[in-house]
Design goal:
By secondary structure, this protein is of the alpha+beta class. It is 56% helix and 18% strand. It binds adenosine-5'-diphosphate and magnesium ion.
Amino acid sequence: MTQPESVLLDVLGRHLSAVSARSVLTMGLARAHVDMQRPQPGDGRRLLHQIERGVRLYLADREAQDRCLRNVAHLLESHVEGQVEQQSRVSLPVNTEWDIVTVRSAGRSLCQQIGFSASFQVKVATAISELARNIVQYAGTGVIELATLATNPPGIEIVARDRGPGIPHLATVLSGEYRSRTGMGMGLRGTRNLVDQFEIKTAAGQGTEVVVRAFLT
Ligand SMILES: Nc1ncnc2c1ncn2[C@@H]1O[C@H](COP(=O)(O)OP(=O)(O)O)[C@@H](O)[C@H]1O
Ligand SMILES: [Mg+2]
């Protein structure tokens, strides 16, 4: 039994007999498909729902049930969803060509962790490459933040931020009339077409922030 599981068992054991507590927990984890060592977005809510079914079965008194569930909910919030937050948002520096590779692969493994399909991973990795390459080429230095979105359907958010020269000719770039100097890759316009949400804030001399979100279809 993992550490978070035994803490949970402990809480349940304060309200139920040892045998019932163990059975409620085991059944809840199996039914909610939760691995407490690698909690995923939404796991806490799903597990609570399954534990609730058990608790309402084993405890007769409605008030006692609610008391128990309040404690469980509180614990899941800090132990499960808290961990998800930490695990699923990362901020990575982008300064060199090599950082592009690192960020790209971080995006891929984040996708894998939450069970996104191979084609979704390619989409995310491509968007990350384009944004990271622009930082290196035009701003020199910046960061990329990656986060999973516990939405329904689930998604991923990529934020590319730099304090470079900005993109004064943004409208032209996005219109498609713009001829890229390198002519390589999808560019900002291609990236926008690839994802579900695309926002860009840029100011001459102050920098650029691109926020991209893609959701599982
Ligand atoms: N982060 C950035 N900072 C400053 N300028 C940028 C940035 N990203 C893109 N640009 C400008 O926008 C143009 C278009 O970018 P993009 O669509 O990626 O095509 P490409 O990089 O192939 O030129 C770039 O040529 C550059 O002038
Ligand atoms: Mg580019």
